[in-house]
Amino acid sequence: MSGQRVFNVLFICTSNSSRSIIAESILNGIRDPRFKAYSAGSHPKGEVNPLTLEILSANRLPTEGLRSKDWNEFSGPNAPALDFVFTVCDQAAGEVCPVWPGQPLTAHWGVEQPQVKPGENKTIGQKYLEVMSLLRRRIELLLALPLDKLDRLALQKSLSEIGRVR
């Protein structure tokens, strides 16, 4: 498979401590040689939520090298050229993003924050599993796209449709 194009994917949420980290871990954990995942935040917390790391480990997903980072790391001259940028929280989707190298396609793949709301009859572990399941499903749909057969407009439409999958 040497010489095969690698697509760089950036997942964004505001604090880059849970949802975008989960998406990065899932995509890299799938180990599809066509894709390399990253994550970042518009206002990074500076640390990954310890529960996120615990749940990723418990589900045999990679945690090595995961860190909360500013999205500006991906807009500078040494940043990887991005092919896809997905916002995974509604707040980040409404923010003005930096100019990304590579003119990536973008889509909003919003998922709820994995926290239990008052009166909700779920555990925090169940909430994390729901978030992970939805992100995994969307990532699997991305991986199944015939990227070499879709023009930019059709691919953009497909990416947006994936973001509506529940």
Describe this entry's structure for a reader.
- The protein has one domain (7-156): Response regulator (Rossmann fold, 3-Layer(aba) Sandwich), CATH 3.40.50.
- By secondary structure, the chain is of the alpha/beta class.
- It contains five helices and four strands; from the N terminus they run E-H-E-H-E-H-E-H-H.
- It has a four-stranded parallel beta sheet.
- Helix 3 links the parallel strand 3 (84-87) and strand 4 (105-108).
Give the count of structural domains.
1
Largest sheet: 4 strands, parallel
CATH hierarchy: architecture: 3-Layer(aba) Sandwich
Helix content: 25-40%
Number of strands: 4
Query: Which CATH class?
Result: Alpha Beta
Q: What's the total helix number?
A: 5
Report the sheet-strand fraction: 5-15%
Write the CATH fold name. Rossmann fold
Average the pLDDT over all residues and give the rounded result.
91
How would you describe the shape? globular
Q: Which regions have little confidence, pLDDT < 50, spanning 5+ residues?
A: none
List keywords for this structure.
166 residues, alpha/beta, 4-stranded parallel beta sheet, globular
Q: How would you summarize this macromolecular structure in one to three sentences?
A:
This protein is α/β, with parallel strands linked by helices and 166 residues long.
SSE map:
Elements: E1 7-13, H1 19-30, E2 35-41, H2 50-58, E3 84-87, H3 90-93, E4 105-108, H4 124-144, H5 152-162
Parallel strand pairs: 1-2, 1-3, 3-4
